[in-house]
Amino acid sequence: AGASFNHSDGFCSSFSSELHFLSLRGSPCQISPSLSAPLSHQIGIVLGCSCGYDCPESIPCKLEGPLSPAIGNLTHLQTLSLPFLGFSGEIPKEIGALKFLKVLNLAGNAFSGGIPVEFNQLGSLRVLNLAYNSLNGVIPSELSRCRRIQVFDLTGNMLAGRIPLFFGGLPDLGLFALSFNQLIGPIPRDFSNGCKNLKHLLLSGNFLTGTIPAELGNCSSLQSLLLFSNFLSGPIPSELGQLSRLQSLDVSRNVLDGVIPSELGNCSNLSVLVLTNLMIIEPLKSHSNIEHLTEYANKDKSEQNIFLGALPDAIVGLPHMKILWAPSAGLNGSLPLDWGRCERLEVLNLGGNMLTGEIPSGIESCKNLIYLDLSSNGLEGNMPDNLAVPCMIVFNVSRNTLSGPVYFSGSADKCPDGDLLSPQLDPSALPLWMEDGSIFSLNVASSYFWTLYCGSILWSLPVSLPAQAMPIVHDFRENNFTGNVPDPLLGTVLLRRRPAYGLFLSGNRFT
Fold first, then answer.
1. Burial letters for 42-77: b for 16+ Cβ neighbours within 10 Å, e otherwise?
2. Max CA-CA distance within the chain?
């Protein structure tokens, strides 16, 4: 059996304990009869989006106002999913009486106040998603009793205090997301005690201090480790090289130092590595309740990670690497010579470092490159003959001491149509999860690419290009190039996107 409702008197103001199932996803608001009629034992209420992040505009109505404490009368409820519906006020503590509840998804509303300590009674809970609200206070230590939790997502609130120690003792925890809050203190080292099933650890955009725990190297299932925009210090632990399933690692916008561990070359599935970043990654701006996060994120735009030494050869040889992003990271020495396994590499940004020597000819093996930034280093000599510049959205070798002629090699009809050219969500909202608690990811590399590409284009261009077009930038400025002014050539794949094109050649010795 099922039911519908009219929200004129507040959502579910007179719930019956006998309701069986209510689903209004994709339905109009003005529906009847009242929910007070007995309809067997209610096990699920699902309204709005199933995933929570990517579809707020698709919801046909908003259910503004508070969520009634009468929700606690539905004692057989197993799923309560009400994302992005405009609810406000405090989360009813009566939800804690729903002892059979497995999924609680209230993301993307305007709930305020604290997380009810009564949630410690939810012994069957698998999914707790309260992301993108305005919750404050501390994370209740009483939640340690929710031993079956698999998805714990409090992203995008105003929670303060420290990360509770008990999360290391939740054996089934697969996603732990506390990004974009106001948390302080260190990352607990006890995570390693019960993290065998942890796939995604997302702690970015807080005020976390201390070092990155070496014990995270024991979390053998970890796929995403996003720690950007904190105050973490010290070196990147070499123990992270034990994470053979790791796909995404972002430690940018901290105060890290030391050498980049060559052991990261053992992360055989790593596809996104962000060591430094000169612009803010913010939460999705489509959510109406996260203006305070944008304000916080814009307070400091400096990057303070300063590493020592060269980029390890083992990292550029990773077979699944798509994005390697380390601008102004303090790197010195020469570029790696061996690029023989870089066929999947699509984005390489090493601009603003202290790299010297020549651009190695082996980089021509990276046939799928669409973004190459080696600007503002001390590189010299001629450019490699077969760099496929016509296929690149960004090619930037400005502010070096490169010499010789400039020409556009390669065939315009043979450019790869790379995986990264399909826009996705931004990385502040990844990964996603299903309502049964299973976790999945979108194309994380694509998400990162569009965020990094758009940000870098906006602040680095010497002139403005039309915002509605995809800017393509080929920048050779301020070198010692000679010979004829090159004739530009763009690949067919890029031309189909009707781009705005910028070719920058000033500060050279062209005839």
1. bbbbbbbbebbbeebeebeebbeeebbbbbbbbebb
2. 87
The answer to whether residues 405 and 381 touch, using CB atoms and an 8 Å cutoff, is no
List the structure tokens of 187. 């990352």
Residue type, position 79, single letter: T
Note whether 32 and 91 are within 8 A (CB): no
303: DSSP letter: -
Long-range CB contacts (< 8 A, 24+ apart) of 376-383?
376/351, 376/352, 376/400, 377/350, 377/351, 377/352, 377/353, 378/354, 379/335, 379/355, 380/356, 381/357, 382/358, 383/359
Distance CA 336, CA 410 (A): 23
Structure tokens at 420: 């990264």
Rounded CA-CA distance 201/177 in Å is 6
Q: Decide: 480 and 402 in contact? Cβ < 8 Å.
A: yes
Q: List, in sequence order, the alpha helices (H) in 161-316.
A: 291-297, 313-316
Are residues 330 and 309 in contact, defined by beta-carbon separation less than 8 angstroms?
A: no
Q: Are strands 44-46 and 21-23 parallel, antiparallel or unpaired?
A: parallel
Q: What is the pTM of this model?
A: 0.86
Distances in Å between the alpha carbon of 424 and those of 158, 265, 295? Answer: 26, 27, 24
Strands 233-234 and 255-256: parallel
Interatomic CA distance for residues 86 and 83, integer angstroms: 8
Report pLDDT digits (tens) over 61-109: 567 789 999 999 998 999 999 998 999 999 999 999 999 999 999 999 9
Structure tokens belonging to residue 511: 């005839």
CA separation for the pair 196, 209 (Å, rounded): 24
Closest CA to 424 of 53, 49, 51, 52: 53
pLDDT for 34 beyond 90: no
User: Residues 6 or more apart from 218 whose CB is under 8 A from it?
Assistant: 192, 195, 239, 242
